[in-house]
Design goal:
Blueprint lengths: L19 H13 L5 H10 L6 H10 L13 H8 L4 E9 L5 E9 L4 E4 L24
Antiparallel strand pairs: 1-2, 2-3
Helix pairs in contact: 2-3
Amino acid sequence: MRRKWTYGRQGRSGRPPIDPEIRQLILRLARENPRWGCVRIEGELRKLGIRVGATTIRSLLRTARLGPAPRRTGPTWTEFLRAQADGVVACDVFSVETAWLRTLYVLVFIELGRRRIFLSPSTAPSPLGLGHPAGLEPRHGPR
């Protein structure tokens, strides 16, 4: 039985690993040229006679924790949001059920820089739906 099922002892499956020198060259190209993407690095390597696929380069850069091409250097997402917080306003719409079984809709704005909250006046639901362009008065019948 052991002689029949020998397919598990053939060695490593899949593609062979990338040579460490080529790996270092790819990482060096990515660090020294932060605006180059995977396809550009692939093209530059091909000019040197080295054939490595863009997907392999992408996975190699991901394991080395180098981000996408235009954002390898510069602020992180958290740093960007902190720098832009004074100009960012977030909003949300929610509904509140009252004790008299009425539904009120509230529109809320928050300034992220100052953390100030602005509430719009709450309204009762329109017969035509929330935010309908016809306003609060329903139309009766066809025109």
